[in-house]
């Protein structure tokens, strides 16, 4: 089944389901991403700080898949925020990936202690002008950071990649993004395995009803919410499981019940505290 695409505010299309490589061992990344590409994923989400861009690049190069059929995201690390330092970091990421362009380049965290995210964004605007990053966006931008960015810069981010799963949906950030045509990318879409998401009746009941797994139900919920999502797994069978979510649909009541699990249940760091 073809993965649906979402059209971003700059006109580019992004596959709504991808594969994330946070905490994928650099020594194993080539094999794991090769598995993901064989399973059918065409959208890969990496970052400079993951240390595995080179492995992603080797898997891409060896895959024989046309560059235009792939969607590759990487991210600017906090220490590299600035002007020239952002340009340099972007070049290093391209080099590591072995690519001439990335499809999406993100500011990884606002890193407020540095107070350089506005400057970094202006550098991303320039990078976009060169065409070497087709789209640009941000990550972990809560309402205050997003508000300031929108007020002080010209290009509206294409996406905001935030921690987003049933217990933590960040409704204020989501509303601000929706009002400004910014698509949401959900990181930690399965809650990073850090709470009992797969045992909650709101998830297990539709899983039983549709003959799917709890993980498939949660991924399906994201897709029906309109989120862009890239669950991570080192395990090829789970990669295939997570990709096999286009042969069923949650009813509005099932969807609503999962949305009702919101409880400000952040499982990872608050963006104010990551510098
Ligand atoms: P995730 O919610 O995708 O959880 C991954 C974990 O869930 C795996 O380690 C695995 O143990 C488990 N899992 C995966 N598939 C499963 C299945 N079918 N059944 C049971 N368990 C399963 O968490 P994540 O990896 O943190 O998030 C996904 C991606 O988001 C990352 O790989 C990365 O690309 C991105 N991310 C971005 C940021 C950011 O700051 N921008 C932060 C974290 C993650």
TrEMBL record:
<dbReference type="Pfam" id="PF00248">
    <property type="entry name" value="Aldo_ket_red"/>
</dbReference>
<protein>
    <submittedName>
        <fullName>2,5-diketo-D-gluconic acid reductase</fullName>
    </submittedName>
</protein>
<keyword id="KW-0521">NADP</keyword>
<dbReference type="InterPro" id="IPR020471">
    <property type="entry name" value="AKR"/>
</dbReference>
<comment type="similarity">
    <text>Belongs to the aldo/keto reductase family.</text>
</comment>
<feature type="site" description="Lowers pKa of active site Tyr">
    <location>
        <position position="75"/>
    </location>
</feature>
<feature type="domain" description="NADP-dependent oxidoreductase">
    <location>
        <begin position="23"/>
        <end position="261"/>
    </location>
</feature>
<dbReference type="GO" id="GO:0016616">
    <property type="term" value="F:oxidoreductase activity, acting on the CH-OH group of donors, NAD or NADP as acceptor"/>
</dbReference>
<keyword id="KW-0560">Oxidoreductase</keyword>
<feature type="active site" description="Proton donor">
    <location>
        <position position="50"/>
    </location>
</feature>
<dbReference type="InterPro" id="IPR036812">
    <property type="entry name" value="NAD(P)_OxRdtase_dom_sf"/>
</dbReference>
<dbReference type="InterPro" id="IPR018170">
    <property type="entry name" value="Aldo/ket_reductase_CS"/>
</dbReference>
<dbReference type="InterPro" id="IPR023210">
    <property type="entry name" value="NADP_OxRdtase_dom"/>
</dbReference>
<feature type="binding site">
    <location>
        <position position="108"/>
    </location>
    <ligand>
        <name>substrate</name>
    </ligand>
</feature>
